[in-house]
Amino acid sequence: MRCTIGVDIGTSSSKGVLVSEHGEIIAQSVREHEVQRPHTGWVEMDGTIWWDEFVAIVRDLLAAPDASGAEVAAVGVSGMGPCVLLADDDDVPVRPAILYGVDTRSTAQIARMTDELGVDEITRVGGSTLTSQAGGAKIAWIADEEPDAYAKAQRLFMPASWLARHLTGAYVLDHQSASQTSPLYDIENETWYEPWWQQYAGGLEQPRLTWAGEIAGEVTQEAAVATGIPAGTPVITGTIDAWTEAVSVGAHGPGDLMLMYGTTMFLIATGEQTLRTPSMWTTAGAFAGTRNLAGGLSTSGALTAWLKDLTGADYPQLLAEAEESGPGARGLLMLPYFAGERTPIQDPDARGVIAGLTLEHGRGDLYRAALEATALGVRHNVETMRAAGADIRRIVAVGGGTQGRLWLQIVSDITGLVQEVPQTTIGASYGAAFLAAGAVAGDAAPDIEDWNPVVETIEPTPEHRAMSDELFDRYVRLYEGTREVVHELAVEQRATVRSVSPR
């Protein structure tokens, strides 16, 4: 039985699948982990976890009862990003990995680099202004704040490239991930921008650039012993999880928008032109010849998990009570900026706000308001993308949050968008397996519509349109009206955390 393996390293867990050549999932495995938040605005992870969990997951997959006789044709890798994991010459991390835009520590570096290079030039070269998502600014933070660690660093990794390195010995990074190491990548010429690499990442060896579905190398004998995957098995380069998720549902062609429901919410609009707007991220696509306009909420599933832990109720209870609360959450309105916000407001000092609370409100109202807050954030992103010229004709939903119909319906009602839900929504691990299958199939490469057909369509409820428009207007005004006070609180929060942090 010819199969491929796909493994994705996510924010809260690592997931793996063993998939047949026809797209059937033969086995699955998950390893949960946590991020570290040593200071307000810091989100990091021990990078050694990524390989350890990969090994454990692959051994689970190959030992599954239905995997007997499986012939692993190729391996797909994927991971959250853009992350910055710097390692020394022996590939030992010099410090924990700094995660993507939810980590907002590099504010000073962003301001300095923007002043030194200029907004127009940064946008011309890399496509995007510098934000908390910019990998290059995170590298600069390490150089500025932890010079001893930076002095030891030789190589730059993200989760997918870390796995590829351990499996094959290749030092590679895909173009899509590289385009998010702003301002180090030249998006039009699809190469590292040498002057700024030397200025802000000097001393680091540049990884070889390839596309996500291209073969990075073959499993080494050492990696074969560790994982059980036969030596010589091809391994793709892989890419950031949101882009691999888009691949998993076929939402990576011009006119497509992928909406990922996860710990954070992510949106990717695909086209053939390089669209630039300061509110969103302009990146290379997963495949040659494509460009993306992308955005992301800093919290979505993380916010619902917070409410679950806070109230002690389980998800079925909260969903039932949120359903009963009804559209508008009985007069509650929430800003979901509990970890700052990425797009389109690009405000690391934004904070969560719950407006309209009374003694009559219950946890179901709060949960409903949280779901509506994420949907309002999605609408804000979509409207910003369209204003920048994105041609959005097809919306595909993916990720763990698609298992709950209420959340999907709320998003369609508030955005006015029809969402397609495919048969398999587990996301990036499945997309990585698909990319791996295509890399070794030649002219017989599989079609994602055959692997993963659409099984449900979510239509917006027409009678909720007026209320949704009113909610969105209030949502935008609530942020503007509370921003000054919230920013003052954010400054106090950072000072308080610093004062009690261990030496």
From TrEMBL:
Highest rank taxon of the organism: Bacteria
Gene3D superfamilies: 3.30.420.40
Molecular function terms from GO: D-xylulokinase activity
Carbohydrate kinase FGGY C-terminal domain span: 258-438
UniProt keyword list: Carbohydrate metabolism, Kinase, Transferase, Xylose metabolism
EC numbers for this chain: 2.7.1.17
Enzyme class (EC, first level): transferase
Family matches, as Pfam families: FGGY_C, FGGY_N
Keyword Transferase: yes
Protein name according to UniProt: Xylulokinase
Native source species: Microbacterium pseudoresistens
Organism taxonomic ancestry: Bacteria, Bacillati, Actinomycetota, Actinomycetes, Micrococcales
